[in-house]
Amino acid sequence: MIHCPGCGSGLRFDIETQQMKCDYCDSLYDPYRFDSEKDDAKKAESFDTYVWVCPSCGAELETPDEMDAMGFCPYCGGASLLFDKIRKQWRPESVIPFSVTKEQCKEAYLKEARKHPFVSKQYKDPKLLETFRGIYMPYWSYRLLHRGKYEIIGESGESRDGDYMVSEVYKITGDIDMEYDGYAHDASSAFDDRLSEDLAPFESEGKKPFTPGFLSGFYTVIGDKPREEFDERTLQYAKEKAVMSIAERSTEVGELLRKKSLRVKPGESTVPTEILDAQRALYPVWFMSYRKGDRVTYAAVNGQTGKVSADLPASPGKLLILAGALAALIFAFLMMLPSVKASVASLITAIIFLAGNIFLNVSFNRLVGQSKELRISPEAVAYKKHNVLRIVVSAVCVFIGFIMTAAEPAHNVVPYTFCILMAALFIFFIVKFIRFQLSVAKRRPPQMDRKGAASDEK
Question: Measured between alpha carbons, how far is 377 from 363 in angstroms, rounded to an integer?
Fold first, then answer.
């Protein structure tokens, strides 16, 4: 722990002032004032950290403050972390200090949660929100150079020319000389790549030379992935990014693409790209986990921009209440308005049935839109396979409702039975959606081995 020169109490990095603040006398100090090793090249390669280990999943967290101890594991929701040892940790070249306060973090999370009306209230519990913890995640930060001749491939849409379908392909060439700094990839096997991708990008303008003072009052995750693991991926991403940047920012290229209605093909385009260097960096993340039985859900907030990535499973109870309420409204409508013909009532019920299924489809797309990993998960693929069928069934029911309205069945029992079948079918679709929600909530990030998680813990 860094001690206050004035009173000897502990100093913490204060987000609002971006200074070291005394817990007792409120004095403020420059974080670089206490970096005694910054001028010693040999010592500056590492710094002392205190390692805490989760006994349930084995996750490790570090802090430069000897007296700090987190009351729970942010990865598996375990009840506690145990002190392990003092470790010499690699010293990163840069750090992006926290600029989003904990209160701002909670507000950003709640704003995202309110977009999902059927989220269980337990995910909005103020006590749960207090468990957000500031953690610095290790990244490899790349600096890249684009210099030389580029070639942009643009293709027009197909058009008919006699008996043939033809399309035009253009090669647009030019010179580029641009340096790009800021692409980064998380360097920890413990940090879920899905969360890392969702929280990106971090703004490289906020980077500062590292000093341990920025970490005071927060935790860090160990960086255990070598940069060579990401070099090829980084080059490919940088090339595609440069292609789209040229297409969007170059007046002449953009004008030609619009004039000819050309679609850029990044995979076939080329831009000279090389990696100048890759530096170790620490980026700020507010992290929270909630554990209930086998389910572990996560919420992470970018500590620089406030961007949110969160698992927000819908409440099965709320969805069932919705299904019951819709069914009750339909039958109340039929009973209270005897002047409405049974055939018209069946049409109205079919329209409500279609609207309800469209709403479920929108909810599904919003949920899986949170990440690529979720979109390609077996649960999402299996559910999506029948999405079109559900909408088609709903549309067919509306069509049948129109037919009944025109044909006027001799007995009211036919349209009323039709209404009952649609209500039962809608409840069945909601149950399927609930099962999908539960299966998603039980998914575990592939990087973490969450052994020993059995009971509910907060």
Answer: 17
Distance CA 333, CA 285 (A): 51
CA-CA distance, 406 to 409, in Å (whole number)?
9
Domain ranges of the chain: 102-310, 316-441
10 Å CB burial of residue 180 (0-12, 13-18, 19+) is middle
Q: What is the pLDDT of residues 279-317, one digit of tens each?
A: 889 999 998 887 766 667 788 899 999 999 887 766 667
| Model pTM above 0.70 | no
CA distances from 363 to 51, 317, 355, 367 (A): 41, 16, 12, 6
Quote the tokens at residue 102.
């904990």
Task: List the beta bridge partners of residue 207.
Answer: none
DSSP annotation of 205? G
Beta strands in 156-212 (DSSP E): 159-161, 164-166, 169-186, 208-209
pLDDT at 149: 92
Pairwise CA distance, residues 47 & 131, whole Å: 28
The average pLDDT across 179-195 equals 80
pLDDT tens digits, one per residue of 65-95: 655 555 566 666 665 665 555 666 667 889 9
Percent of the chain at pLDDT > 70 equals 76
- Using a 10 angstrom Cβ sphere, with 0-12 exposed, 13-18 middle and 19 or more buried, the burial of residue 320 is middle
Q: What are the strands, taking DSSP E only, across 190-323?
A: 208-209, 219-221, 263-264, 274-292, 295-302, 308-310
| Residue partners of 36: CB distance under 8 A and separation at least 6 | none
Q: Are strands 82-90 and 159-161 parallel, antiparallel or unpaired?
A: unpaired
- Alpha-carbon distance values, 177 to 27, 242, 269, 330, 415 (Å): 47, 11, 17, 66, 71
Q: Mind listing the pLDDT tens digit for each residue in 417-453?
A: 887 788 788 878 877 877 776 666 544 443 333 333 3
